[in-house]
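Subject: sequence -> structure tokens, single chain

Hey, anyone have a minute? Need the predicted structure for the following. Not urgent.
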Amino acid sequence: MSQEITARSRFTAMMNRGEKPYGIFVSSIDPAVTGLLGNAGFDYVVIDGEHGRNDRGHVENHVRAAGSSGVVPLVRILENSPALIQSMLDVGAHGIVVPHVDTAQDAKRAVEASRYAPRGRRGMCPACNSGGYTMDGWIERTREADENIMTIPILESRKSIENVEEIVAVDGIDVVLFGPGDLSADMGLDLNTDTALLMDAWRRVFAAARAAGKYVLAPTDFGFDEADMLIAPMEYMLLHKLARSMVAEHKASLRGTGRRNKGDSSDG
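Reply:
Had a minute. Here:
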């Protein structure tokens, strides 16, 4: 049987208790990374099919690793495409993170693609990972999937911020992701130095979500920590940061050893 879809019910319960689900982007095509991060205690992973190299086969392997380690597998797709959404849900993703959602109509299209007919436009197929390769209990399982699959739009343009009140009002959108990267580029800002200039946009998104009874997801380390859900940077970036720190510490220790050895030398 397929893995039970629990994303919406699990995260909503956590947030209602005042907890902040904590996740991380996964760019690697190796499913062992998802298993490792799940065992480390992350609540969810966002398997990256937009900027990462993960295709449909890679995502299915990540989903299986997520199932064995208890972490919720979400997928960031390349574009707001019904075919891509169905494809990733069929291999077992518990939710879809959709880039460049600028309008309520964009959000509705993504939600419709993530729900089975007649509630949406997702095609039915039991002969896949999410379908469990059986028709047994099909109607009940599709209802449960529709209730728990998450469709998370990324708000990452000036237009999306202008339309945020309409986007969060869309039925089927429970969480929106505030995307400071592309938003800063769209505003002509430097994300490294101009984060403070994004705060008006952040406050508008946060207020709109609160007014609509919805939740906000945001990346860590940029000052948006009042978000309901948080996500760490890409695991490759963390690995690179750690590696640079290790190398710098090693070289510093060698320089210190060299100075001590030079000072300890004597002619007598």
